Amino acid sequence: MIRYLAKRFGYYAALLLVAVFLAYALSASALGPRSYFEAKQPRPSAASVDRQLTALNLNDHTPVVERFGTWAKDLVLHGDLGRTIHDTSVNDDFGRRVWVSLRLLLIGSVLGMVLGVAGGAWSAVRQYKISDRALTLFSFVLLSTPVFLLALLLKNGAIAAKDATGQEVIPFTGYETPGLAGGIGAHLADWSLHLLLPTLSLALGGLALYSRYQRGTMLDVLGSDYLRTAEAKGLTRNQALIKHGLRTAIIPMSTMFAYSFLGIFTGAAFTETIFGWHGMGEWFIQAINEQDVNSVVAVNLFAAVVVLASGFLADVLTAALDPRVRT
Amino acid sequence: MTTLITEATLPAAEAPAPGGRLRLVLSRLTAAKGVLVGGTIVLLLFLLAFGGPFITHWDYATPDYSALRQPPSGTHWFGTNGLGQDVFAQTVRGLQKSLIIGLLVALFSTVVASLVGACAGYFGGWIDRGLTFLVDLLLVFPSFLIITIISPKLKGAGWIAFVVLLAAFNWMITARVIRSMTRSLREREFVRAAQFMGVHPLRIIVRHILPNVASFLITDATVAVGGAVMSETALSYFGFGVRAPDVSLGTLLAAGTDQAPVFPWLFYFAAGLLVLFVLAINLIGDGLRDALDPTTEAARPARTSRSSK
Fold first, then answer.
1. CA-based diameter of chain B, in Å?
2. CA-CA distance, A56 to A71, in Å (whole number)?
3. Exposure winner among A57, A163, B68, B257, fewest CB in 10 A?
4. Which of the residues in chain A have pLDDT under 70?
5. Does the beta-carbon distance from A19 to B140 stay under 8 Å?
6. A132: how many CB neighbours lie within 10 A of its CB?
7. Does residue B98 fall inside a structural domain?
8. Mapping DSSP to helix (H, G, I), strand (E, B) and coil, where does residue A89 land?
């Protein structure tokens, strides 16, 4: 098992290296920081633009490979992600925003996963009953709603509730009430209320997607001989289902988790922008519009690490559940 | 279990009559209510998208200054926006663009996915390793990030460039599935026979491999249309897709968002049509999967026992 995981880890590390280089090369050549400086009023001289660009390691007259080398050296030796286009530290922005995004990503995806697996398995056991049909219809409608639209609908609902009652029932901007007084309890309650709508817009999509697949894999397992054997040995139906059925039915799902994380990441970027969270997604869209290469690369690096980490976790989960993979 | 039985008895019962499989698929399709309902909705939406401009005399761009932000009425069926433009004409036009983009993206990405997947699975070795690495590499980043970085470069190139860009980052997962299906097909007798007869590998892929994965490809392409429409609207919503003067459902949603609580007709017609279309597509896809995919989990044991006879 350790050898298998070590091999996967090495593969992911190689992927990460190539991917980060490509992301750097792409951002550095597609975005034009030079035009950002040239558009300043009063217009700076060409020499001064060049000087500023070189100081920020953004000068497009330096070969991309050389710029990447400088950037990578700083990152590896000092953990420094470079300077933003406003000559502030990318690390500062990164450190502030990463927790905002991770909070949303982790809670949203784990909640979607757990609810989806549970809902799908439950639905499979009750195949063709009213509850199964209701969940199927519900997930079909959710699967057909893009995340940004779902987020907008939730937000519009919250606005309508505010207009109807005259006060903000469920907050729909930001991740905390600015200047809130009170102890840690009041802050926690405030945070979770702010988390509610953005997390829902992520988790509901996950719930719909996973429950469809889990229902399918669970149905394949339900008629199997080993489940009947387990019951014949004296386990109750529910014990057999959970110990032998669910375990087997989750294995194909673990790869699914890894792939769908791409979608969840994208969804989180939209959700952040819509609910006014100052996270990585909002930063990314802002950085593109400002031609801020180093910030764009930092977000890409974060995305790649998160995606590959979830891929690796999926491998660990598969190896833990499926004894055939371990050798 | 039922699928297993039909698959196993199918060749004996129906193989002699040509078109037997087609008839079987058709009868299963008409039995699936989802396909019927979904197909009808998609058909109606296409009629609306392409016939709509002819049944209203309003143009999507020309403003009517006598009616600013009017609610739906007899003259303006879906109301008007702040500039006095007819929302029905705009919605129909946006729907048209979104549908075309969705269809083209699904077509392109399915072609790329089937070729890359079949080549990787058929040739194996270094070609396989290289293509798999490429697929994994493209999967490291959420495609949204890459499309967003590139799209400002394509400002002048119009929506066709956007279609190519969407398709370029939409084929990887399908390709992985095709690859693993091809790897098991490669060992089958008819492929072996073709190899021993000296048929060119690319010809084998086109003649023998791809027809055998066609049912998966059809289902996947159907669902991909819905996915592509969702990506298109999302990217256009954030200003990285279709741009003015073109309209799509995404740009309409972006324009209507802020006014949605007060002027709902600017937002909910486009939103409703978007969800309705993707929902109909998903219903069709689900029905197609049940009706014509012989490679579902339940059918696999039947296949292996047949080939070992």
1. 78
2. 10
3. A163
4. 325-327
5. yes
6. 17
7. yes
8. strand
Tell me whether residues B279 and A144 touch, CB distance under 8 A.
Answer: yes
Phi and psi angles of residue A202, each rounded to the nearest 5 degrees, phi first? -80, -45
How many angstroms from the chain centroid is the CA of residue B140?
22
**Whether A257 contacts chain B with CB within 8 A:** no
Evaluate if residue B106 carries a pLDDT over 90: yes
Q: Is the pTM of this model over 0.80?
A: yes
A144 and B278 within 8 Å at the Cβ level: the answer is yes
Structural domains in chain A plus CATH codes: 97-325 (1.10.3720.10)
Tell which of B129, B137, B149, B171 to mutate to test the A interface (max A CBs under 10 Å): B149
Give the pLDDT of residue B2. 36
Disruptive mutation site among B5, B145, B295 for chain A (greatest number of A CBs within 10 Å): B145
Q: Are B86 and B56 in contact (CB under 8 A)?
A: yes
Residues 6 or more apart whose CB falls under 8 angstroms from that of B233 comprise A146, A148, A149, B98, B241, B248, B249, B250, B253, B274
* CB-based contact, A25 to chain B, within 8 Å: no
Any B CB within 8 A of A296 CB:
yes
Q: Do B145 and A299 touch (CB under 8 A)?
A: yes
Q: Identity (one letter) of the amino acid at B157?
A: A
What's the structural domain count of chain B? Answer: 1
pLDDT of residue A34: 81
Give CA–CA dist B130/A327, Å, rounded.
25
Over residues B172-192, the mean pLDDT reads 88
Establish if B230 touches chain A: CB-CB under 8 angstroms: yes
For residue B125, the domain's CATH number is: 1.10.3720.10
A16 in contact with B at a CB cutoff of 8 Å? Answer: yes
